[in-house]
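Per your request, structure below.
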């Protein structure tokens, strides 16, 4: 089987696409023939050795996949060979075959394409957890999404709109903003030269019940001046690479709160609850209340090009790698 291996942290040149042994199947696991694997901002951090927790080198990265079950472990009762599934792999997803514990394998909606399905779990899982479970977003809430054209940002737009909220999307180009509008954003903010303050001063909306922050840096504190009384700042990520220091007097003056969101450990620690979230997302999709991001596709061999799209801020929405097996699922 072929997979992408990290031999050393640092640069994309340390990744090798080559032939390796098939993984050994555990009793509670299924072996998945991978059709598609979602590529996230986190994968760039993994390659650079900046991710919070990584296994010992060498290893196969890749956090989420879609595909078909090829083998099942001795103790597996709820899934069978031939099932079309989506899985949270933690590691090993950038490969033609991966073994995954059944707690992290979900049946794919039959209406969903494999590339869309492979790219749903992390982004929509995070935004659903952040907005619905943590912030308890309400109809008519006004939400500002920073980094709105990224994978996480577009999923937040869709979930907020499904609830009935009013969405202001901030992104760095007109092209990116037009995609935010396609996914339902009501109000668009162009952030030239990373300046959110001036852009918000001229905005139609200037008070937000929820600020969904995927960027960090100066964006976090600058946008706090525009939060409503008792609003919520959701700290989701630091795509700028800068972790901001937020002055607590700003929180006091607005009676507002800052909530840290870390979906991965939440999903791994609450498997049944997470399964119900994934079912809810499938239902929203089947009922056409969310359309899900259609990713830009690359063959797994073209992984460097794919990773560079994210690293160089060229990507809009999500990037997806596919294997030769992808054509079987079409
Ligand atoms: N908390 C969690 O559980 C969780 C889960 C998943 C991801 N995340 C984090 O969420 C963040 C976004 O992830 P993603 O998958 O949406 O990434 P993505 O698809 O690459 O999107 C990130 C967006 O951030 C903006 N950006 C990137 N670098 C920037 C910079 N230097 N300055 C300003 N803006 C920049 C870009 O939009 P513009 O060019 O328009 O600015 C880009 O579209 C990452 O930090 C990721 O680690 C957190």
């Amino acid at each position: 089987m072929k997979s992408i291996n990290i031999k050393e942290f640092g640069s994309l040149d340390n990744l090798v696409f080559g032939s390796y042994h098939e993984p050994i199947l555990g009793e509670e696991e299924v072996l998945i023939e991978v059709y598609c694997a979602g590529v996230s901002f986190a994968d760039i951090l993994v390659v650079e050795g900046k991710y919070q927790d990584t296994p010992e080198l060498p290893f196969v990265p890749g956090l989420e996949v879609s595909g078909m079950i090829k083998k099942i472990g001795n103790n597996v009762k709820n899934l069978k060979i031939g099932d079309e599934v989506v899985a949270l792999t933690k590691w090993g997803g950038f490969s033609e075959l991966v073994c995954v514990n059944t707690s992290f394998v979900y049946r794919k909606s039959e209406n969903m394409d494999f590339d869309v399905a492979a790219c749903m779990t992390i982004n929509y899982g995070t935004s659903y957890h952040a907005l619905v479970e943590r912030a308890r977003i309400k109809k008519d809430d006004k939400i500002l999404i920073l980094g709105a054209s990224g994978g996480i940002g577009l999923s937040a737009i869709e979930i907020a709109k499904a609830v009935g909220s009013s969405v202001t999307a901030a992104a760095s180009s007109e092209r990116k903003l037009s995609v935010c509008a396609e996914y339902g954003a009501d109000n668009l903010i162009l952030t030239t030269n990373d300046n959110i303050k001036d852009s918000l001063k001229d905005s139609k909306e200037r008070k937000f019940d929820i600020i969904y922050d995927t960027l960090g840096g100066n964006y976090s504190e600058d946008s706090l001046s525009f939060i409503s009384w008792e609003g919520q700042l959701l700290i989701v990520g630091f795509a700028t690479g800068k972790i901001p220091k937020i002055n607590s007097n700003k929180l006091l003056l607005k009676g507002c709160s800052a909530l840290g969101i870390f979906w991965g450990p939440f999903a791994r620690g609450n498997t049944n609850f997470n399964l119900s979230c994934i079912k809810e997302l499938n239902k929203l999709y089947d009922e056409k209340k969310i359309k899900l991001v259609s990713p830009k596709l690359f063959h797994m061999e073209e992984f460097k090009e794919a990773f560079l799209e994210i690293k160089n801020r060229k990507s809009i929405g999500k990037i997806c790698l596919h294997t030769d097996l992808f054509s079987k699922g079409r």
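The chain has a mean pLDDT of 95.

Regards,
D.
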